[in-house]
Amino acid sequence: MKHKRAKWHLYGFGVVCTLVTLLLTSCHGDYTPKQKAYPRVDFPEHAYDMYNPESCPFKFEKPVYATVTVDSYYRGQPLNKPCWLNVNFPNYNGTINLTYKDIDDANTFEKLVEDAHNLSYKHTKKAEYINEINIENKKGVGGLLYEVGGDAASNVQFFLTDTSKHFIRGALYFNNEPNTDSMAPVINFVNADLKHMLQTFEWK
After folding, report:
1. Threshold 0.85, pTM exceeds
2. 61 near 48, Cβ under 8 Å?
């Protein structure tokens, strides 16, 4: 009987030693951290339809997956600006804000351009760079596109004008924490459609 007990004690001791050895080797083994990965985003085909609001002096082609709504509030106050629009990308939590203004004595062409420039450069604190790209499409519409690199609140801004009557400013925003690495595929996809919008934009 004593011989059997001793045998079981030795067996139990061996099991404990084996478990301890496995634990120690697993704790000190080589560890390779996983690379940072972001969820895959599936994009639709690029396709467009004409957006032609009756009350506004412009029209353009928008992506079929986007919706357009009138911006009813500005800084919490009701607006009566039927040509201040939001081009919404609900699948990507993004919006292009469009603000239209007539060029007149109160809003001269020079003032509107300066305001658009200053608003775009408000993002320089977090910007890695800002590229200014001239816009001139086949419809005779000109302007300037600002491409803002880095974790800025808006990576794409622009204005379009005929320099005498019409001026519209736009900015692309995503309703999430700015992160260039994770948002790059979405920004690039939407940016391609935004540029198509600019190339098809025309005054009526």
Report:
1. no
2. yes
Residues 6+ apart with CB under 8 A from 168: 58, 83, 98, 99, 100, 101, 159, 160, 161
Which CATH number is 193's domain given? Answer: 3.40.1000
Residue pair 140/161 in contact by the 8 Å Cβ criterion = no
SS (H, E, C) 178-189: CCHHHHHHHHHH
Q: Give the distance from CA 177 to its chain's centroid.
A: 10
CA distance 91 to 131: 27
Q: Is residue 117 part of a domain?
A: yes
Domain span at residue 168? 56-203
38 within some domain: no
Tens-digit pLDDT profile for the chain (204 aa)? 544 444 444 444 454 455 445 445 544 445 455 444 445 567 889 999 999 999 999 999 999 999 999 998 777 777 889 999 999 999 999 999 999 999 999 999 999 999 999 998 875 666 778 899 999 999 999 999 999 887 777 889 999 999 999 999 999 999 877 666 677 888 889 999 999 999 999 999
In a domain, 196, yes or no: yes
Domain assignment of residue 17, yes or no: no
